[in-house]
Amino acid sequence: MRTITFFLVVLMAGALHAQAPTQVPTTFGKLKLIQEVDCGATLPNEDFREFPSGASSVERILGASCRVLAPSDETTKYFAVRIGKGCGLTPGKPYLLCVEFPEDKSRSMFIHNGGNEAISGVATGETTGDVLAGRYVNHNPESLQYPLSGKMSQWTGLFYLHDRFAEMIRPRGRGERNLLPEDGFWVTISQSYARNDPLSCGAAVAKVRLYEILEPEKLALEINYPPKNLPKRHIFWREEMADGVVDIGRSYQEEQDATARGVANPADWYEYKLLWARALGINTFCKDLLEFGHNQGWDAEEYGGNRWINQPRNKQLWGELVQLCKKYQFPILPYYEYCGSIGGDDTLSLGRQKRAKRLDGGDKYTHIWWSEKANVDLSDPDTLRDFEKILDCTVLRYKNDVEFLGVWLRPRVSANPVSFNERNIAQFSRDYAKKTVSRQDLQTNKELLQQYYQWWFAQRRAFLENVAQYLSQNGLENTFVLYTTDGGEPGYSIPWQIAGTGKKDSWRYKTNVVNDNMEKWERIIQENPYYEKRFVKAVDIEEVLEENWYADALKHWTDNWAGGENNHALPPADPENYLDSKRVMFSYTIHRTYSAADTPTMENYRTGAGLTCVRHYPLNEHELNVKGSTDKEFEPTGYFVADVERAGAFCMMPEVRAMAFGNPSQLGYLTGNTFQRGFPQYVRAFNAAYLALPALPSEIIQAAKYGKEYVHKISTPSDGDYYAVCSLEYTKKTFVIENLPDGTLVECATGKRYRVANGSVRIEMEPMSLRSFHME
Predict the structure, then answer these.
(1) Residue 502 buriedness (CB in 10 A; 0-12 / 13-18 / 19+)
(2) From 159, 217, 436, 584, which residue has the greatest number of CB atoms within 10 Å?
(3) 3-state DSSP helix/strand/coil % of the chain, to nearest 5
(4) What is this structure's pTM?
């Protein structure tokens, strides 16, 4: 046994090259080293795999022996090592998976943790990280010159070990998971085609380590919340393609076969997530209760059961999760992709009636068949009653058990479209136009159609306000309704109508690489015909910011194509019509640098309910697929979907910028699979500072005076003033904060005290960071 400064490191029998690590994580308390795998060494065949054969090589980088995947346009690649075999791993215990990699050049890679079936991407330097030209959606690629540390860095993933693991092929949902804890699990390092991230020099990893957390009861991040009389901030997350690992199937036989699930009891899997969230300082639980309109685990018997809305076999799941949230004191924000109830009886199932109609009278708004199965007309009184019944079953039934923040509605394509049915047109004629209007009138008169849109926007607000009122009338007075009009995973893109303005072949600006090195990117795009086929163009970040393109993108109506009415299928937000609302707000999408860069744009989304920023992650779905001998694609690692973040402090770039320019009262995440944060020390520092501030509006009292610093003053009625200091710098820097009253600033998260003299104080800031203070 060897002790290393507060951390217990034990070398386990059977470990490959087990030795005292060079970098021991300090974020989560006392650790026990289970195993260290030296990726630069020759490993036993049963514990090492690569694709294709000979895909990896060993290089000396920054003094360390690293296994490297050279970029290739011929194939995707991976190498994998088995870890934890014969090491006494225990299901349900918390572990740390650490991947040591060099920050010598711009690199990107995906890290597959077989122990909890999570895939996370890491991007350094100028890489885009997310696949440049996604096969399904626009990933909003961005390439900026983030500094490289010139040292070995470490990705660190906290996770709770599953009961069973897959071999190399990850199932999508139920499937073969034949490995048990005594077999260990696979850790895979992969990358897509070189053209998908042309500035990446290839994945490189020196060592993979697995630690057991010895004091799990101390994992929860301590938050110094403001006094109880002040409103609290909240952080929440929703995962899209994650819960297949605990899919119980559609029959009794499948439900009894726990070998096809990663965790035998689905409620245990969710409990692991709550424990993980507490460790990172995420304080609110969110679960999808409707996914593309389908019931995700709640009891609907009160209103007709499967005749009204189809119920899964585990319809008791939501009640179990409510009790878990009660146990761990998590407020809840339930999430609904509402398109009307979907059940077996069309007389009860509103969504299947598809009452919303296109401008031409049809009911299929797009070519996306799976989202065209149901829709609702938000102006229809039956729609409100249908959703109220869902609230009865999922919220009001449990209102005395746990705190509900409110409800979150996020319609997918065609779920809540602009409707032009006969009743709609008659109502518009009577209440708004004050004259008889026909469908043909709306099709031929653009000015009249614009008036119709304004009428429909008013109907949408009335529906949302009525939902808020229904919650209030049923005992949930201090709740809000959050509505997200951004139906795509990556978040809003800058369309060609904006990016191509004044440029040659403006219509080709469909996948815009926002960057700070135009000469390099224009050369890359010009030299590879692939980018021409995929409509990839280089766009200068300065132009995007100066012209405030993102503000225009938020208002953009989707283009029509393939004979559809895509523009009406998912209409944009109209936040300017909600500024006086007390209970309803639209979410504001953040993702790339330019998405949080203008205070007036963000303030336009603030209502009496606050301002909620939601960070969207692209799925990168199927981006490891390769063609086999029959020219048919296959998945070398099984189902692939991954969320990508920048390395180190820059993983928090969207959140810090959102705070600098917008001061949101809530932060949310829409992730593609099991949410992982690979640099938790920066996440915890931000969350501790953010949650310590009261959820009140602020005044910016200092903006980029001595660098890229932004200082917000938050005044309270009776508890003095709070200050949020944001640094958007790429390096550590000390700022002089001015215009303060003389006295003592106390850092909210740490209690450290700073003396303010002559109205100013010096504060040292880490790169891309937030610190919060209270004036004593």
Answers:
(1) exposed
(2) 584
(3) 25, 25, 50
(4) 0.95
- Tell me, rounded to whole angstroms, the distance of Cα 535 from its chain centroid: 26
Whole-number Cα distances in Å, 127 to 200, 336, 364, 523: 6, 34, 39, 15
Residues 6+ apart with CB under 8 A from 305: 311, 343
70/51 Cα distance (integer angstroms): 12
pLDDT value at position 8?
Answer: 35
Q: Are strands 536-540 and 511-515 parallel, antiparallel or unpaired?
A: parallel
Tokens 């990117």 belong to residue: 521
**DSSP conformation class of 404:** B
Tokens of 439: 């469908």
Which residue type sits at 561?
Answer: W
What phi, psi does 46 have (nearest 5°)?
Answer: -75, -10
First vs last C-alpha separation in the chain: 47
DSSP 129-165: -S-SS-SSS----EE--PPP-SSEEEEEEEEE--S-B
Phi, psi of 760, rounded to the nearest 5 degrees: -145, 160
Spans of the chain, pLDDT less than 50? 1-21
Asked if residue 334 lies in contact with residue 402, where contact means CB atoms within 8 angstroms, the answer is no
- What percent of the chain clears pLDDT 90, i.e. is strictly above it? 93
Instruction: Return all residues near 688 (Cβ < 8 A) that are at least 6 apart.
Output: 221, 222, 223, 224, 281, 748, 749
Task: Give the integer Cα–Cα distance in Å for 477 and 715.
Answer: 24
CB atoms within 10 A of CB 320: 16
**In this structure, what are the phi and psi dihedrals at residue 398, rounded to the nearest 5 degrees?**
-115, 15
Per-residue pLDDT of 565-607, as tens digits, reads 999 999 999 999 999 999 999 999 999 999 999 999 999 999 9
pLDDT number for residue 22: 53
What CA–CA distance (Å, rounded) separates 752 from 11?
38
Q: Cβ distance 247 to 261 under 8 Å?
A: yes
Cα 30 off chain centre by: 29
What pLDDT does 248 receive? 87
pLDDT in tens, 105-149: 999 999 999 999 999 999 999 999 999 999 999 999 999 999 999
DSSP 8-state secondary structure symbol assigned to residue 371: G
Question: From CA 439, how far away is CA 722, in angstroms rounded?
Answer: 55
Q: What's the rounded Cα separation, in Å, for the pair 223 and 230?
A: 15
